[in-house]
Amino acid sequence: MGVVIPLEEGKNKHASVKPLVDLTKGDMERVNQLILSKAGSDVQMIPEVANHLISSGGKRLRPMLTLASATLFGYRGEAHVKLATSVEFMHTATLLHDDVVDESDLRRGKSTARTIWGNQASVLVGDFLLGQAFKMMVEVGSLEALDVLASAAAVIAEGEVLQLSVAKNMETTEDDYLSVIRAKTAALFAAAAEVGPIIANADKGARAAMKSYGLNLGYAFQLVDDALDYGGKAADLGKNVGDDFREGKITLPVILAYRRGTEDERAFWRQSIEQGESSEENLEKALGLITKYGALNDTIGRALHYGTIARDALAPLPTSPLKSALLEVIDFSIQRVN
């Protein structure tokens, strides 16, 4: 089952992250070296667990945002490399913790760390990476950058708890869901983009623009991820289609299909999600209901909305290859459903 969503007129119909990758390549090589260095430890299990996830093929979009946003405002120095590495460690720690909370067995097509080393090791190595991230932030010496990233770390943790509180609850509203993805995903995108102009000593307008860009890109990115779980392919997802359904996650496609359904259909959702009756037969029925009520199209419609806000945030900035690359990332993030 696939979803084809037409991009808005004038948007890049073959968007890629390659322009951003190419423009940040030199700095990303330094970030990757620092990642390997800072993930090292005399405790053998720490680099084993950390490298298992770090080397699993993620695009490293968040640290690239930090590098790009610093360079965009004329930064010259070393601090952006340390902050980008901090951002990637925060993200990696979150994934390690997420997989434990969600009891996930697959991440980017590979067995999760928890299935190999256990839950305790995953949580503790995540804590180690967070500690290393904060050490690098302190080394940079910018209290403003430290404040932004530390605040994001607290918000992410709040998001984890909030997600637990709404888990398997079919009365979860779209507003509840948006609060979760703001905290769990969008907050780190926003912080990653905002710290660049901070260390470049750019004005408040630049900071606000990059924060808005990152925040709304994060919303769009997560909305598409949640749509892909019901409309993507396992090879693209790095997990099985329907994993969110099996884990009882309340995401926007489910919320919309539930609220638009008949009483019998809502009873089906409560049985499947709240009572955990997530058989393959029930997954097929869920996919049918999501299609029936246009829930995937509307989820992508929300993503397009946030993508437009992210584009508008960058509109006042001068034209440049980096700006064009950042705009293309928005289209790429949404096109993943095509």
> How many discrete domains?
1
Rough outline: globular
Second-tier CATH architecture: Orthogonal Bundle
Radius of gyration: 20 Å
Number of helices: 17
- How many strands appear in the DSSP assignment? 2
Strand order of the largest sheet: 1-2
- Estimate the mean pLDDT confidence: 91
Amino-to-carboxy terminus distance: 11 Å
CATH fold node name: Farnesyl Diphosphate Synthase
By CATH, the superfamily comes out as: Farnesyl Diphosphate Synthase
Percent strand: under 5%
Low-confidence stretches: 1-10
Structural class: mainly alpha
Q: Which CATH class applies here?
A: Mainly Alpha
Description:
The chain is an all-alpha fold and 338 residues long. The protein has one domain (18-335): Farnesyl Diphosphate Synthase. It contains 17 helices and two strands. A two-stranded antiparallel sheet has the order 1-2. Strand 1 (106-107) and strand 2 (110-111) form a beta hairpin. The longest helix is centred in the middle third of the chain and has 28 residues, at 204-231. The chain is globular and about 60 Å long. The N and C termini lie close together (11 Å). The model is unreliable at 1-10 (pLDDT under 50).
